[in-house]
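**User:**
If convenient, please work through this fold.
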Amino acid sequence: MAQSRRDVLKQGASLAAVSAAGVTVAAAGTPAAAAGESAAVPGESAPTAPGSLAYPYLKWPEQVKESANTPRLCQWFSRNPSQATVRRWRQAGVTGALITDPPRLPWTAATLLADRQRLEAAGLHITAYLINITDSIVRGQEGRDQQIEYVKQSLIAAGQAGIRVVEYNFYVHRLTEGYYELIDDEDRLGAGYTAFDYHREVDGVAVKDLPPRPGTPLLTYEQIWDNYKYFLDRVVPVAEAAGVRLAVHPNDPPAVISRGNPQVLASVADWKRLIDTYDSPSNGLTVHAGVTPEVGHDAVEFLRYVGAKDRVNHIHYRNVTVDKPRERYAEVFPDNGETDMFAFMRELVRQGYDRGVLAEHPRALDFDRENGSIVGQYAGVGGGGHGGELYDTGYARAMLQAALIMERGRKPVLDDAEALVNRFYAAGAVKLADRTRMQANLTAADRLAEQSEAAIDRFADVAEDVEDAEARASLTSMAAYLKAQLPT
């Protein structure tokens, strides 16, 4: 039987009331309604027993698991990892492999496919390969064209082997001489942080004044940038055609000068210049939750900027405290630094990012010191071992699941609001222009956190001007409920 206008308005008012109670109702004519599914009654509390509906739009744990449609945790792996390494990471739930020992250039598809098959047989998937950019390319020296040709051949092979991301660095010298271990004797009782100080002395010379290594030429910023553009102009079109995304790691430490030579990827302005130099998703960044505040910028804000341009090709996930941008800072635990790591992960989920997230640079813990498991380039300067890696990994997974809950649990409420608008429009209680404006604001509220409050306010403004009293009351009630769901 056809519904009367009054019936439609009553259903719309009921929908708003039930949404305000924190539950959803199947609209008339939907599969759920046709199946006779029952809805919670306003005023009744949602069940909170284990496995029930603490967040009623999601099923635990299936819908908050890492998957091909979410950010995916990864860790450093060799091309042929030991069974012990595979076990320790799979026990922690990590299956993404960031390959740190790539074959010699040029790569071949056969070699990469063999790597992929070997790792997939161990229950892993390849997140990305690192590729070495030689000094001749960075410095613009003889032989760079041959080396660039090797990179191009390697990118073609990566595409043929189904490798989605290739990460690289671009610097004359990495200023690791500025690192030292900072012990936290107050909050974390002896944990070690990797600190950087541009002014500390090494053999009586301040780090900022260290001379170039023997045989290293002195170049200007623009000379190095010209060399970088020369490289990008030749390799990005090949990567694009191969279906491969390049991800350049920011210069870290991001000092202005590194042993006499400028760094061209050590500021937000540099990273934006990179994006503008060649307009392609294949010309992207490893967006870094730690290095971004090291240069004095908010990491979440920059992530939004890069995400809007589809250049977030890889993620490094660690935290810092900063005394002076680019000169003095400390790499700390993920939970006690300056970057809001939950907001950062939530923004990745909002963007639909589905590539790698590396929880990196574990802190030095007594557990790892006692077990002798602190090795590698950060041993002795505050770096940790596998105990610290597990801490960082567990934290990253918790942030990912919390972000998925917040984002996937929030969307159905916005869907309810849109259904309500459409219902009143169908009944003739809302004009087409008003429906269009309210729908546009609901779309804006679903995109970026900083837009949500203003968008919902605009939705409410339109609702308050609706002439039909019942429609106006229901829509303004819905707006109030949407506002209450915003994160504080």
